[in-house]
């Protein structure tokens, strides 16, 4: 039976026994520093080949202390066959390694770890293409975690991360992005052996989910919006009120002017890739926006939100969020007796336990158009 040796700590290196009869059957490898895109490690070139596992351990200890570099002859104590001499040499190297560690430069800060992770995810990995929105959300989440920026990453614990979330003044949706960033950052740190613990594993959002809450525009407020439809900010708000899409979806929605429908959506299975006919009342607004800007949303969501607040104040309308437009569409569907099932389809809501509609309910674009055209334009 082969002898069992202790598992070496992460970041220390590895010792592998090779097959066959060899004078030096143990290969000694330095710590892994490169990984494939799927996360699997790339085995580095061996430091040395030695006669025993304990000699291999000695090589790694010497390597970490700085007394051995790849290619040089083995230190004398590693060539010695006497166990006492070998162990004494390893202890000396271990003590040297401890001094090197204690005298080394400060640990990476949270900010430095994020910058390294950001480069790895968005600049080094060319297997995926990330949207401008995804990158913007990541940057915004990092900015909102400013309380952690100058902390040493390895000093952070669960309570530090949780406190940063609990004390954040941001809404639920923004904190979701902060949580996502922390999870990704710790996954990266574990892959590259900066840490063995994922302190983000049990963090949670301790405020009510307000993502779907909102106050619809009243008919009087809609009339005021129509009075200022030539303002590009108000123009998009009106389009949202008569289509029901979330503001973030407008970064990727396909607009088919010829057949007069929107295609796309985000967030849930039922809301993605759905079709909503373009209401005849907003068709000219959509066409104008496409011809003028080449897209539906040519700025960040955060920037649009701030411009909307300013525009509403300018025109004497109570403050509303862009998401209130989605609630307005739902209210209008109810007011003008749009089929409840079609209202759910156009909003991208789940049919829940209604298996018949969820699986077998299919509606043509013209069926949906007939329903959405029931909504009257108040102008």
Features:
three-stranded antiparallel sheet, mainly alpha, 15 helices, hpI Integrase, Chain A, 45% helix, elongated, DNA polymerase, domain 1, 3 domains, 379 residues
CATH class of the largest domain: Mainly Alpha
Percent in strands: 5-15%
What's the alpha carbon Rg, rounded to whole Å? 30 Å
- N-to-C SSE series? EEEHHHHHHHHHEEEHHHHHH
Roughly what is the average pLDDT, rounded to an integer?
82
Subunit arrangement of the protein: single chain
Number of helical regions: 15
Lay out the secondary structure:
Layout: E1 14-17, E2 26-29, E3 48-50, H1 53-65, H2 76-79, H3 83-102, H4 110-124, H5 132-144, H6 158-166, H7 172-191, H8 219-227, H9 232-241, E4 254-256, E5 261-264, E6 274-277, H10 283-293, H11 301-314, H12 324-335, H13 340-347, H14 355-360, H15 365-372
Antiparallel strand pairs: 1-2, 2-3, 4-5, 5-6
Helix pairs in contact: 1-3, 5-7, 9-12
What does this structure look like?
The structure is a single chain. It is elongated and about 90 Å long. The relative contact order is 0.07. Residues 351-361 have low confidence and may be disordered. With 379 residues, it is mainly alpha-helical. It has helices spanning 53-65, 76-79, 83-102, 110-124, 132-144, 158-166, 172-191, 219-227, 232-241, 283-293, 301-314, 324-335, 340-347, 355-360, 365-372; strands at residues 14-17, 26-29, 48-50, 254-256, 261-264, 274-277. The protein is built from 15 helices and 6 strands. A hairpin with a 4-residue loop joins strand 4 (254-256) and strand 5. The strands form 2 sheets. The protein has a 3-stranded antiparallel sheet, covered by helices on one side. It has 3 domains: 14-102, no CATH class; 110-191, Orthogonal Bundle (DNA polymerase, domain 1); 219-372, Intergrase catalytic core (hpI Integrase, Chain A).
